[in-house]
Amino acid sequence: EFDVVIDATGAIPVMNRTIDFVRKGGTVLLFGVPPSGKLMELDAFKIFQKGLTFLSSFTSVRNSIQAVRLLQSGEVKVESLISHRLPLEDLLVGLELMDKHDPGVKKVMILPNGLLDS
Hints:
Layout lengths: L1 E6 L4 H10 E9 L13 H7 L2 E4 L4 H13 L8 E6 L3 H9 L7 E5 L7
Parallel strand pairs: 1-2, 2-3, 4-5
């Protein structure tokens, strides 16, 4: 289990599983944007028992546009930070990679719609 679990996918099935991977007293960060009107199904007792903290963030369109421009311009280089790209169905593989604390594993990117062609 991890101190902090971050969901940046916005995929409801992934968001529902976050509490399974965070330690007692840990924090779940929800940064992905789920579809409007979709509900999460979480075990309320497990949240209580583990004493979890949930945080979320919503950014403005202006901030998102600025971030995309920085990435497109190459001013912010993220490629060297991502060591693995996996489809959503390999989420557990990605979590196991991160759990090993191998120095060759930097960031594992989970792609909810499958791998992209490079």
